[in-house]
Write a structure and sequence with these properties.
Number of helices of chain B: 5
Largest sheet of chain A: 7 strands, mixed
CATH superfamily of the largest domain in chain A: Aldehyde oxidase/xanthine dehydrogenase, molybdopterin binding domain
CATH superfamily of the largest domain in chain B: Beta-grasp domain
Strand order of the largest sheet of chain A: 3-6-1-14-11-12-13
Strand content of chain A: 25-35%
Strand order of the largest sheet of chain B: 2-1-5-3-4
Largest sheet of chain B: 5 strands, mixed
CATH architecture of the largest domain in chain B: Roll
Structural class of chain A: alpha+beta
Radius of gyration of chain A: 27 Å
Largest interface: A-B, 63 and 61 residues
Bound molecules: FE2/S2 (inorganic) cluster
CATH topology of the largest domain in chain B: Ubiquitin-like (UB roll)
Number of helices of chain A: 16
Structural class of chain B: alpha+beta
Helix content of chain B: 25-40%
Shape of chain B: globular
Distance between the termini of chain A: 57 Å
Helix content of chain A: 10-25%
Number of strands of chain B: 5
Oligomer: heterodimer
Number of domains of chain A: 3
Strand content of chain B: 15-25%
Radius of gyration of chain B: 15 Å
Distance between the termini of chain B: 51 Å
């Protein structure tokens, strides 16, 4: 029986429910000291003086390190897959400049955490402060990606078509800055052994952390070892290696002991990235029949002064709908804040919000059902790239989702549906995300005793990598899943791409499958060449595997277990790397699609919005584990409820301070905010995307939900709110 | 800073500890006793990741100092299973996929155990209300409610 496609429970489930799963900050080392960072309390300027006299005399304090006494570090050039192409990372403690509020200015190392916290509070810093620039509107912008070509895209003449369109909508949509706020704070334990450094560090990309820290300290890459078997949520914040990792390593070297550094929740708002604030103009032109004739999409997002972070704000515009005239542009507004980073569906979540709200407005202007409008503008190919989709199930998603939701019972008029005194709104939106695939490696090993071991430098921040890879390996080897041990999160395992962009299943999964098939082929060769094996002399092509045994297809009684073969032969190991099929990627456009339907209830007097239910239908290729994929989708919906109705990091205009930098003031959905969530997967057989036929689930789950809620709020209230989060005060 | 001596019974074991009076119950567990199962999400009483049972009641262990609890009985996630046999709520969490990353999970389970003991699990609505002090950023709430509902039904 195949393991792929079965809703197996998580293989690491028992470890997680008993507290045995160990996260980065829990790998205590002998003699370990504790570090606490002192963060800048101005938004721009320079450090005039640091008074550490009191702090240094406090009991247990081992060192206070700032730019005054920090080592000059190599900071050799390093651009990882996930680093902005333009600009340079923050060099920590290398000068007296303050570039953003909360920038690390010093670190205290002490014997205990309490001592380090107390001493950090006793450090006094004087600043020569200036007022930071925080605006993203009414300021000069830079073309995203560094050039006109990278920031602008056009086909036809969108502006001319728009001016002639009989029906049009033209509006500006805004999204607040969001912080990932995973439940686990960033944490690093650093320990030096001579000029070798071991880091236990929260990371979605341990091999990049290894290479980056080696570059920062001027070490050979193999002198740095990074371990991270569990990640307590990340959503993108642990893709890059942030300054605290370097600080932990500086501290450990300075005091010649292992050092543990855990960021406070407040510090999680300073230096570990955020979804950038954005402003988008979307203008749509259509004929009276609803056919799109023009799309204009102009986006601006914040970045820092020292790096140009670009997310995919306007990339969906070119392929989502059929339209002859499309123009998009993407500008960056540099501000005196820290660099934004990828946050779940980076760019797509924001871009889809603007475009899908505009589509809803257009449906209203046309007096047309929002579902019909989308079906009417369904393209037959990717008109931006001028090539076919490898698969595109949007129509099925819309139809199946609408049926499941009961969309046909919707009264199209705003404020027409009620439940007692509550206003009821039904809204929908399209979801989409690219099907990425990047080169990855994996290693598989068969032993005479114990499970088959499979390993890759991948991560599992919650989607279920441990389980899904176990399923892939089990099927490739012909073993029951409980006889496979999949391990990840070590920089000395075969290299994998970042655990983000919904590409882990496609990339690491393909590599795991390839490594397992390779080790299986080796086991076959060992058996058929060995006179002691019942398989001796059989043709390799005539051998199959099932239930932990190899057997001759034409004579199934001739069989031998992997364990017996490996016991006789010695452990059998194989490593494989798997790269995307570049030819297929040139011929086809590869994306996931989905449709999200929501029902909200709005209190007409108090403006309180409740999401009563949501249905998402997704076409994302083959689903390896429906139980886990479903959890990812409903979890994404919860994130989308936050994006739509709660989440915003507010900056004090005077100094750039994130004023609500706590779990109490940065609102996220709690249990009572979440009701019926339903995710369905549309059958999709895509032979082109990768060997497994998977497209990934993690990001598409967050696109679509926020606009579906915003559209439902409009349907309930007749009020179009074009800025997220939608707040009570917007509706009263 | 002078240390204070206290005695605590943690997961059934009597422990004598000499602690900095500034040490929170949470930091005592994580940093002094290597009981990392109890998680720190905010250190400010706003997320529930640090939920433990103190003399049978659920509390946020980050919000209280260890030295205030001389003689108390503490149960953490590590003390919930009976050897290899999981507590029914632990098993239900796996069955209902009531977590993704797992970081909020010990707090959710400890809170859920208390929610059941308090008699606050009569309906999904009631469970949601009484479990809203435990944030799950992965959004596993539907599974959490199902797991607690099933455990409540099984013990009825
Ligand atoms: S860590 Fe105690 S409530 Fe968040
Ligand atoms: S399972 Fe990740 S925060 Fe709850």
């Amino acid at each position: 029986m195949n393991a792929i496609g079965r809703p197996l429970p998580r293989v690491e489930g028992a470890a997680k429910v008993t507290g045995a799963a160990r996260y980065a900050g829990e790998f205590d080392q002998p003699g370990q000291a504790h570090a606490v960072i002192v963060s800048a309390t101005v938004g721009l300027g320079r450090i005039a003086a640091i008074d550490v006299a009191t702090a240094q005399t406090l009991p247990g304090v081992l060192a206070v390190i700032s730019h005054l006494n920090a080592p000059k570090l190599a900071y050799s050039p390093h651009k990882g897959f996930i680093d902005p192409a333009h600009g340079e990372r923050l060099h920590v403690f290398q000068d007296d400049q303050i570039r953003f509020f909360g920038q690390p200015v010093a670190v205290v190392i002490a014997d205990t955490l309490d001592q380090a916290e107390h001493a950090a509070a006793a450090i006094h810093v004087d600043y020569a402060a200036r007022t930071p620039e925080l605006r993203i509107e009414g300021v000069e912008t830079l073309p995203a990606g560094g050039s006109h070509a990278s920031a602008y895209k056009a086909r036809g003449d969108a502006d001319a078509a728009l001016s002639q369109a009989p029906v049009k909508v033209d509006a500006v949509y805004r999204i607040a800055r969001e912080n990932h706020n995973p439940m686990e704070p960033h944490a690093t334990i650093a320990a030096w052994d001579g000029d070798r450094l071991h880091l236990w560090s929260k990371s979605q990309f341990v091999t990049n952390e290894q290479v980056e820290i080696a570059a920062v300290f001027g070490l050979p890459a193999d002198h740095v070892h990074v371990t991270c078997p569990f990640i307590g949520g990340a959503f993108g914040t642990a893709l890059r290696t942030w300054p605290h990792v370097t600080i932990a390593a500086i501290g450990a070297r300075h005091v010649n002991r292992a050092v543990k550094l855990v960021l406070t929740r407040r510090q999680m708002f300073y230096t570990t990235g955020h979804r950038p604030r954005s402003m988008q103009r979307v203008a749509l032109g259509a004929g009276t029949d609803g056919k799109l004739s023009a799309i204009v999409h102009e986006g601006t997002a914040e970045t820092s002064r020292y790096e140009q972070f670009v997310e995919a704000l306007t990339t969906i515009t070119s392929y989502l709908y059929s339209c002859p005239n499309v123009r998009s542009s993407h500008g960056l507004a540099p501000t005196d804040t820290s660099t934004p980073t990828y946050m779940r569906a980076p760019g797509e979540a924001s871009g889809v919000f603007a475009v899908e709200c505009a589509m809803d407005e257009l449906a209203g202007a046309l007096n047309m059902d929002p579902v019909s409008l989308r079906l009417l503008n369904e393209p037959s190919i990717d008109e931006g790239e001028n090539r076919p989709f490898s698969s595109r199930s949007l129509k099925d998603c819309i139809e199946q989702g609408a049926a499941r939701f009961g969309w046909s019972r919707r009264d199209p008029r705003p404020r027409a549906m009620r439940d007692g005194r509550l206003l009821i709104g039904w809204g929908m939106a399209t979801a989409t995300y690219p099907a990425f695939h990047a080169p990855a490696g994996a290693r598989a090993c068969l032993h005479g005793n114990g499970p088959a071991e499979v390993e890759a430098a991948a991560s599992d921040m919650g989607p279920g990598t441990y389980t899904s890879m176990t399923q892939v390996a089990a099927d490739a080897l012909g073993l029951p899943p409980e006889h496979v041990l999949f391990q990840l999160g070590r920089s000395d395992f075969p290299r994998t791409p970042p655990h983000g962009g919904s590409m882990t299943m496609a990339s690491v999964g393909s590599a795991v499958q390839a490594a397992c098939l390779a080790v299986r082929a080796k086991a076959v060769q060992a058996a058929i060449a060995d006179a002691r094996s019942p398989l001796f002399g059989a043709a390799a092509a005539d051998i199959d595997a099932a239930d932990g045994s190899l057997f001759v297809k034409s004579e199934p009684a001739r069989r031998e277990t992997y364990a017996t073969i490996a016991a006789r032969h010695g452990s059998i190991e194989a490593e494989a790397t798997c790269s995307p099929d570049e030819d297929a990627r040139k011929r086809f456009s590869m994306h996931s699609f989905g449709a999200v339907f929501t029902e909200v209830a709005v209190d007409p007097d108090l403006g309180i919005v409740r999401v009563r239910r949501a249905v998402g239908a997704y076409g994302c290729g083959r689903v390896i584990n429906p139980r886990l994929a479903r959890s990812q989708c409903t979890g994404g919906m919860v994130g989308g409820i936050g994006m739509a109705l709660m989440e915003q990091t507010l900056l004090d205009p005077r100094d750039g301070r994130p004023v609500n930098a706590s779990m109490a003031d940065y609102l996220v959905p709690v249990n009572l905010d979440v009701n019926e969530l339903d995710a369905i997967f549309v059958e999709e057989d895509d032979p082109h995307v990768n060997a497994l036929g998977v497209k990934g689930v993690g990001e598409i789950a967050l696109t679509g939900i926020a606009p579906a809620i915003a559209n439902a709020v409009y349907h309930a209230t007749g009020k179009r709110v074009r800025a997220l989060p939608i707040r009570i005060e917007d509706l009263i | 800073m002078a240390t204070s001596e206290i005695e605590l019974t943690i997961n059934g074991h009597l422990q004598r500890l000499s602690l900095d009076p500034r040490t929170s119950l949470l930091d005592m567990l994580r940093e002094h006793l290597a009981l990392h199962g109890t998680k720190k999400g905010c250190d400010q009483g706003a997320c529930g990741a640090c939920t433990i049972l103190l003399d049978g009641k659920r509390i946020n262990s980050c919000l209280t100092l260890a030295v205030m609890h001389n003689g108390a009985h503490i149960t953490t996630i590590e003390g919930l299973a009976n050897g290899a046999e999981l507590h029914p709520l632990q098993a239900a969490f796996i069955e209902h996929d009531a977590f993704q990353c797992g970081y909020c999970t010990p707090g959710q389970i400890m809170s859920g155990v208390a929610c059941l003991a308090e008699g606050h699990a009569a309906s999904p609505e009631q469970i949601k209300a009484w479990m809203s002090g435990n944030i799950c950023r992965c959004g596993a709430y539907p599974g959490i409610v199902s797991a607690i509902t099933q455990t409540a039904n099984a013990s009825r």
